[in-house]
Amino acid sequence: MSHTEAFVAHRNLLFTLAYEMLGSAADAEDVLQETWLRWAGVDLDVVLDQRAYLMRIVTRQALKRLRTLGRRKESYVGPWLPEPLLTAPDVADDVELADNVSMAMLLVMETLGPTERAVFVLREVFALDYEEIAGAVGKSPAAVRQIAHRARSHVSARRPRGAGSPAEHRAALLAFQRAVETGDVQGLLDVLAPDVVALSDGGGVRHALLRPVVGVENVARLLAVGWWRRDADRSVEPVQINGAPGLLVRVDGEIDGVVAARVENGLVTGVYHVRNPEKLSHVGRETAVTR
């Protein structure tokens, strides 16, 4: 294949890789542009595996961007949440991919260092062998094996438990939506887990929580008294956000935010409300994610 044909053929996979490493669709798109510039100058006669070569370029560019992104988050106003994606329903059919691109899982991966995150994504999501990963991150295969083990243990201790089926997730989210829209405190107490955490991301541009709210009573009270203004022309649409059921909120016809939830054993354990306008560009249309 030519440079263009190979890049187009693997573009969705490359975007997914960059997005999982960065948690930002905008930064992932920038990484793809940088990758194309480098790929266009490669002598294809010396490339044995075009997919692997492109993934290596993306990984290296994403690692550079990830370190810059870390500095940017230090001055971010309020909690930082991953940039949500509107995804096709069939993403949920690939259970492992849907789990790894979920908002909850991306937040877990935020607790990894840059190299650990790259190794985890390449190994656990894309099933690359240690030698291929070593070439991408600039470490020896032995070192990569150790990093992979450490990252896997770290994520395993923090990843969602008892997530259940998409149908159970939708049922919990629907009960949550009804309770929020009607201000039903008891309904919220019934669907929220005792240790539920609510986070909202306005980026200093839109009104949002400046710190996490923890505990069922605190979160229920917050939601019941009007986290969403009820005096506006508001609509709430069930959609697929990052491979799982979510809610797209519009005010006066314009996208106002996205709500994603972490559901475990039928109860909502995490509520993620993204309102920062800079993070809503990929919820107006479906984004293809694949591996």
Topology:
Elements lengths: L2 H20 L2 H15 L10 H25 L20 H7 L1 H7 L4 H12 L4 H8 L3 H16 L9 H17 L2 H7 E10 L11 E2 L1 H9 L9 E8 L2 E8 L2 E11 L2 E8 L17
Parallel strand pairs: 1-6
Antiparallel strand pairs: 1-2, 3-4, 4-5, 5-6
Helix pairs in contact: 1-2, 1-3, 2-3, 3-7, 6-8, 7-8, 9-10, 10-11
Would you write up a description of this structure?
- The protein has helices at 3-22, 25-39, 50-74, 95-101, 103-109, 114-125, 130-137, 141-156, 166-182, 185-191, 216-224; strands at residues 192-201, 213-214, 234-241, 244-251, 254-264, 267-274.
- It is an alpha+beta fold.
- It is globular.
- The chain has a 6-stranded mixed sheet with strand order 2-1-6-5-4-3.
- It has 11 helices and 6 strands.
- It is 49% helix and 16% strand.
Keyword list:
16% strand, 11 helices, alpha+beta, 6-stranded mixed sheet, 49% helix, 6 strands, 291 residues, single chain
Count of distinct strands? 6
Rounded to the nearest angstrom, the radius of gyration is: 20 Å
Uncertain parts = none
Proportion of helical residues: 40-55%
Q: Supply the number of helical segments.
A: 11
The helix/strand series, from N terminus to C terminus, equals: HHHHHHHHHHEEHEEEE
Structural class: alpha+beta
Separation, N- and C-terminal Cα atoms: 19 Å
Largest sheet: 6 strands, mixed
What fraction of the residues are assigned to beta strands by DSSP? 15-25%
Tell me, rounded to a whole number, the average pLDDT.
Answer: 92
Strands of the widest sheet, in order across it, are 2-1-6-5-4-3
Approximate shape: globular
